[in-house]
Design a protein that fits this description.
The structure holds 2 protein chains of 2 kinds. Chain A is built from no helices and 11 strands. By secondary structure, chain A is mainly β. In chain A, the strands form 2 sheets. In chain A, strands 2, 4, 5, 6, 9, 10 and 11 form a 7-stranded mixed β-sheet that branches. Chain A has a 4-stranded antiparallel β-sheet with strand order 1-3-8-7, with no helix packed on it. Classes of the chains: A mainly beta, B mainly beta.
Chain lengths: 117, 115
Amino acid sequence: GAVVSQHPSRVICKSGTSVKIECRSLDFQATTMFWYRQFPKQSLMLMATSNEGSKATYEQGVEKDKFLINHASLTLSTLTVTSAHPEDSSFYICSAPGTGGRYTEAFFGQGTRLTVV
Amino acid sequence: AQTVTQSQPEMSVQEAETVTLSCTYDTSESDYYLFWYKQPPSRQMILVIRQEAYKQQNATENRFSVNFQKAAKSFSLKISDSQLGDAAMYFCAYRTKAAGNKLTFGGGTRVLVKP
């Protein structure tokens, strides 16, 4: 099946620094990538939707200047957490819809555990 | 607003027994898809089963089956012959084309399997 590769799997950074998370679709072209955030023992909350070649669409309450999303190619979408603070510590997951038509499933990256100290 | 509700935060089942996870959803769309995802400790999301809303027949995948009640907007998951490897978080989700194919997740149910 299709694979979405997400890196890094975990990262620790200092407050005030920026962290970039990459998601690559390895054997298919992902025109859309969804970015989710998951707090401990909670569900996945959609943060934003990126589309190749256009600006990302952010969900209500998500700061677009803090969470910069770039989808420069059909196989790569990135999320940059800028000026990270401890409250940004969380698990981030990307997901791309498959391209197999109406019944297509979503393909998830392995997730990134971000810890801001 | 489109919502998905999982009323059971945690369910415990004896190995080889059956457990049913509940899920209700709310949508005004007629064309949508329903999913159950499993998230083991590795946190990799794994598709368990899916259902097209226009299909009356309940989906089945080996030991996993659903009870889809469209009028009641209910989509429960039954795990038969539970195995230790079934222990995980289970998320109910749905997707509509009108919403750009993004998935909306329920709050999740943790399944514990007792040997």
